């Protein structure tokens, strides 16, 4: 018995030592980290200057003394390992579509938390090549920054460069600000969170057009609220020809506000985005209620046009963040995004119309107690859509009310914004009038009797 008790004590003691030993503790991953990058082709090298918080490199053990001050005299090896592990292996560059070899670490330097040398490339370059901090500097290691110069061999400084960052090991949320300085032209700034995939630093017009067409296509397929709005249009009609007026009105309307947003018409107030999201939910709920009540609106396309203006602002929110990847091809990228949205919308209609037609034909075989099967089907589907939209409306509306509201300042910026919105309203009314004339002629031609 005594041997058993002694063995248990030894096991418990060993377990406690194992759990409390710092060698066995998992390294904490930083919650958020900001990475600053300068990229510039110089002769036969592509130079990248990177600044990363030392705290984000938690898998490397840095030598410290006292309460946690970085020991510069013994830190060279750990700093080199951190630069190799996180940056040389985490940033992949391409020239004319060909992957470059891993970056060679040219220089490393620890920077103070108050260091402001990353204001431009020249200042950052001069700072990282300046003498290192003295050994007697008391710098808590979690407050330090690590500046690293990476060099990638290139054949020509005028090549088309791209980067594929894989910095997910640095933090749970990594925000990167990358500044590219091409041989000709002005500096281009890219800001992104996480790993956005491959970024063309100088995209060609066809590449930008392809990427933005793809972005618009998958954006509308991922936007369930936009899809349910289109579904509300299809439920009572289920005819491609009959859907032409409403779909055309929706397309033209969201194109107007999408283009205006790209030109800077969108307000910068924090409440604008939740307001638009709330109105989008309201549009879905309203159209579903119309279907449930069986309201026959003669010119339904006008209501769809008004809601399309709102959905266009919703499309613009993702576009505003991605336009930085368009390079100098802003117009073609904007048009390509709109084309992608229309292609996705067309695909939805091509799939939804025959599926709903099959659904209503199957429903017609069921006894309906004197009620038309089309009416029952429209009510069932619209109730499901209305239920979902009502939850969106409640959630988004409550989020909207959380934003503080304040009276606008009547200054030059306010009147300039008011002028732009007045132009948008006038232009939208003009387009609505033109569409009304075209629709009137379209319907009158169909209604005209044919001569025998």
What are the main properties of this structure?
452 residues; alpha+beta; 2 domains; six-stranded mixed sheet; four-stranded antiparallel sheet; 11 helices; 12 strands; 52% helix; disordered N terminus
Structure explained in plain terms:
- The chain is built from 11 helices and 12 strands.
- Helix 6 crosses helix 8 (300-322) and helix 7 packs antiparallel against helix 10 (373-401).
- The chain folds into 2 domains: 33-202, no CATH class; 207-447, no CATH class.
- With 452 residues, the chain is of the alpha+beta class.
- The N and C termini lie far apart (114 Å).
- Strands 7-8-2-1-10-11 form a 6-stranded mixed beta sheet, sandwiched between helices. Strands 6-5-9-12 form a 4-stranded antiparallel beta sheet. It has a two-stranded antiparallel ribbon with strand order 3-4.
Determine Rg (CA atoms, Å): 30 Å
Tally of extended strands? 12
- Which H/E pattern describes the elements? HEEEEHEEEHEEEEEHHHHHHHH
Strand content: 15-25%
- The spatial strand order of the largest sheet comes to 7-8-2-1-10-11
Structural domain tally: 2
Shape: elongated
What's the overall average pLDDT, rounded? 83
What portion of residues is helical?
Answer: 40-55%
Biggest sheet layout: 6 strands, mixed
Poorly predicted parts: 1-27
């Amino acid at each position: 018995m005594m041997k058993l008790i002694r063995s248990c004590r030894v096991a418990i003691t060993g377990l406690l030592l194992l759990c409390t030993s710092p060698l066995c503790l998992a390294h904490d991953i930083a919650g958020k980290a900001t990475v600053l990058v300068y990229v510039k082709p110089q002769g036969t090298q592509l130079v990248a200057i990177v600044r990363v918080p030392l705290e984000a490199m938690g898998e490397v053990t840095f030598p410290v003394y006292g309460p946690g001050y970085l020991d510069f005299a013994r830190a060279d090896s750990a700093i080199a390992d951190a630069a190799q592990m996180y940056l040389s292996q985490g940033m992949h560059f391409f020239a004319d579509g060909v992957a470059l070899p891993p970056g060679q670490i040219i220089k490393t330097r620890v920077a103070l938390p108050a260091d402001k040398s990353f204001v431009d490339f020249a200042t950052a370059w001069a700072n990282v090549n300046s003498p290192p901090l003295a050994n007697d500097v008391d710098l808590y290691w979690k407050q330090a920054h690590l500046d690293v110069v990476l060099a990638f061999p290139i054949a020509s400084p005028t090549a088309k460069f791209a980067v594929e960052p894989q910095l997910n090991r640095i933090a749970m949320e990594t925000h990167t600000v990358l500044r590219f300085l091409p041989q000709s032209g002005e500096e281009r700034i890219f800001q992104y969170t996480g790993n956005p995939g491959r970024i063309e630093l100088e995209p060609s017009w066809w590449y930008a057009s392809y990427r933005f067409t793809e972005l618009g296509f998958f954006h509308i397929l991922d936007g369930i609220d936009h899809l349910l709005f289109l579904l509300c249009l299809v439920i009572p009609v289920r005819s491609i020809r009959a859907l032409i007026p409403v779909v055309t009105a929706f397309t033209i309307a969201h194109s107007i506000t999408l283009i205006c947003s790209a030109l800077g018409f969108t307000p910068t107030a924090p409440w604008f985005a939740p307001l638009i999201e709330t109105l989008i939910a309201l549009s879905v709920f309203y159209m579903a209620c119309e279907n449930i009540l069986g309201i026959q609106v003669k010119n339904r396309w006008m209501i769809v046009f008004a809601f399309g203006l709102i959905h266009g602002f919703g499309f613009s929110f993702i576009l505003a963040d991605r336009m930085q990847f368009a390079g100098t091809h802003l117009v073609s990228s904007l048009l390509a995004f709109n084309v992608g949205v229309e292609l996705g919308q067309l695909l939805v209609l091509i799939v939804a119309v025959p599926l709903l037609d099959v659904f209503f034909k199957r429903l017609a075989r069921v006894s309906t107690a004197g009620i038309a099967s089309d009416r029952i089907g429209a009510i069932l589907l619209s109730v499901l859509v209305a239920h979902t939209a009502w939850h969106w409306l409640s959630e988004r509306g409550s989020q909207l009310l959380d934003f503080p509201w304040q009276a606008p300042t009547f200054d030059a910026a306010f009147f300039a914004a008011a002028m732009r919105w007045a132009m948008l309203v006038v232009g939208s009314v003009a387009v609505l009038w033109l569409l009304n004339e075209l629709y009137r002629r379209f319907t009158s031609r169909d209604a005209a009797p044919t001569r025998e």
